[in-house]
Amino acid sequence: MATNKKKLSLKDKYQYLTRDMAWEPSYQSKKDIFPQEDFEGIKITDWDKWEDPFRLTMDAYWKYQAEKEKKLYAIFDAFAQNNGHQNISDARYVNALKLFLTGVSPLEYGAFQGYSRVGRQFSGAGARTACQMQAIDELRHVQTQIHAMSHYNKHFNGLHDFAHMHDRVWFLSVPKSFFDDARSAGPFEFLTAISFSFEYVLTNLLFVPFMSGAAYNGDMATVTFGFSAQSDEARHMTLGLEVIKFMLEQHEDNVPIIQHWIDKWFWRGYRLLSLVSMMMDYMLPNKVMSWKDAWEVYYEQNGGALFKDLERYGIRPPKYQDEANKGKEHISHQLWATFYQYSQATNFHTWIPSEEEMNWLSEQYPDTFDQYYRPRFEHWQALQEKGERFYNNTLPQLCQVCQVPALFTEPDDPTKLSHRSLEHEGERYHFCSDGCCDIFKYEPEKYIQAWLPVHQIYQGNCEGADVETVVTKYYHIGAGQDNFEYLGSPDHKRWQAIKGQKPDESQAAKPKNAA
């Protein structure tokens, strides 16, 4: 029998192995098979209009990723065998990795779970295949990030039990609540939250500056996983834009729904990335760029072009974009000042910026740093030199939506804390901003269920009533090992031993006034 040996084109192969594997149900209605496709109000008239810009089939995907994995793990092995941790710029840099491992890496796993779930909910074969591919990507990312940072766990404190910490530690409820919010939304809102708002609009603010920072601080293992993941992120970004355009082109009634989601998830993403602003400005010993510069390049310029393009669909820039643009001058300083005060309850160390670093901050933030933030750091520096390193032994009030402590100031008055509150069914709820207050007003039933770490401590649900007991027993953070001041800490002494420096015994890791 004659056979056709003609090789299939990539387009035909993609068609056969994805779209053509779908079938029309014969004994169940589509509504029963995909029950979550309609309840959000998004109208899809033709799933065949869905375009997957990369047209990857599973066999091509495995081949492509296997090549990347082979090179990535060769570098991990070389980094470990050559004691790469000894060649980083300074051990303070490892504290940025601790925050990344506990705050960001578990989000990759959350994304894997999210795409696995929502992919099941779409009747369109193209959307299901795209969600499947991205779910596998996200699972790979969390694995490679853990492997990249596992070498540091042999030599520095605070990198253990990161998954346990992600579920319990107070400041890690900020990223955790972000993804819990997205994963408990409907499938189309999840795609708008993660594929578009986070992956397309904001992800470069996380990966590009921070991975460049890893390279600039001599951490070749982290930068290699970062750039390996970035090629996937580029695919995710393209998909994120296609998702939005697909929904907007399907029906005009979709426009106001999507605009509301963009407003919400831009603001939630902006609040989440405030942790990254602190990492860039204060935790990288060798600076690459300031948070302010990164925001201007990756949001104001790139985002401005994006929303200009979406104007033809009736989409405008996010509602609180102007407040975020004003915040670029302040949020990193306000975050670091907060973590400096509460370092007794973190899994990483904090410190006062050196004179050289404060001068760099003055250059980067000429209108704000010297006026509002340098005096505060110099005051704490003076206390520390007298052996009175400042720790705040109170518990902060958390925003009901983003769960960041109430530490940000009014957009037009950096001397006044931003605070909003409202009553719902007899209870008063507190917020850090108009953006978070708006999100609550739209879905109060969802956010009154928020698991707020400070509330849980006061209610006795965290194995103790005092900070030290909660930190050690509930968080699994080693008091005096993983936290408090960097100078004089075990990590600092270990680094001095690596570099052949004499330890300064006058610098204690746990001052007298700490909890």
UniProtKB/TrEMBL annotation:
Superkingdom field: Bacteria
Record keywords, A-Z: Monooxygenase, Oxidoreductase
Xref: InterPro entries: Ferritin-like_SF, Phenol_Hydrox, RNR-like, YHS_dom
UniProt xrefs under Pfam families: Phenol_Hydrox, YHS
MF GO annotations: monooxygenase activity
Residue stretches making up the YHS domain: 409-451
Protein's name according to its UniProt entry: Phenol 2-monooxygenase
The species this protein was found in: Halopseudomonas pelagia
